Amino acid sequence: MKYKKTTLAVFFLILLIIGFGWFFVFSPKATIYLVSQNPSPFQPPQEHEKESPKNQISETEPQKPLSDPPKIIKAIYLTSWSATSENRINYLIELKKTTGVNAAVIDIKDFSGYIAYDIKIPEAEKYKTKEIRIKDINGLIKKLHNEGIYLIARITVFQDPILARARPDLAVKKIDPSSSSTLPVWLDRKGLAWIDPASKEAQDYNISIAKDAASRGFDEINFDYIRFPSDGDLSAMHFPFWDEKIPKSKIIKGFFENLRQKLPDNKLSADIFGLVTTNRDGLGIGQILEDVYRYFDYVCPMVYPSHYYKGTLGFENPAEHPYEVIKYSIDEALKRLIALNRLNTATSTDNASSSAADSNSGHPDARINAKLRPWLQDFDLGAQYDATMVKAEIKAVFDALGDNFSGFMMWNPSNVYTKEALL
Questions:
Q1: Which of 73, 110, 218, 324 has the most crowded Cβ, counting Cβ within 10 A?
Q2: pTM, whole model, 2 decimals?
């Protein structure tokens, strides 16, 4: 009798397990529960998820830029993975409704080199540089534009491991005394490969990405890593296109000119090192502030106080003094813009026809209308960046620029921001 009871118990237990399994197969609510348990919606999906029918790309028509964009841009940065998360997009919309945030910078090509949506350019197909994270880029733009959010597409340019893998002939090589033939690809301190900035083919590849993004309705295209490498074993680098005789700044300026010529009517912004605002020799990476002013609508120095060297302005730890560090940097940057405009005006008076073309390609007159709109930090490095610290950064930019204040862009790699500082 005891044996029969045990057998019946096991039989009913098996039926229960089978029934529970069928419940999860057919129940929509159960499916929603399982999906919600994904530990991090901002991490790359697994391979089987990429092929799932529910992740198929939907078609929304291309959008237009905002007809009445805000004059002062207050943006937060989102990774392409964050842009795939409904929670994170709702978070952005909530910030728009409750704070001064009115814009977002979204990665469409990040440090990995992958393009984050189904871009329609031949090179992406040929080189397999697409990783479709944002399934409906046009739909995302439409949704955020409907909320009045200004959208900036960020492109990481010359740091590009995927293009380097597909086209090693374009990549910075590592000098290897043991090799007499093909040199290996050089890697920076983070193990990432770079493309030779002098490669016209690589420049045009990134311009093609920018054109596609602009055609979908992004209000602005933002270019980052528009420079030579700055860390790693720099003495071991070999450049297949740069002859190492032409100044690096001339190579980078040539890319800026190429950009402006091929995107003459688009709003363009450039991310540059914060120290470029006070340094005039290119920092060994080819970035000269005056060159950036000439070709971009917005100049975006990354004036993160944590990134300034010990002793800046006499501070043992510059990260603890955000107001002073940022105000000094933006003060100097504005002075240089004013001086450049004076120079251009004087030159145009002497020879208007040539000076406007030579010194300000892409702009119709001698006056340079570029605006300063820096990146600020909302992350803990060197000091704890609470609301008081972040507010001090914003105040420094406003105090330095006054009537020329055009806003700021806030960076936090986790994409979570200090709301109290943005009110």
A1: 218
A2: 0.84
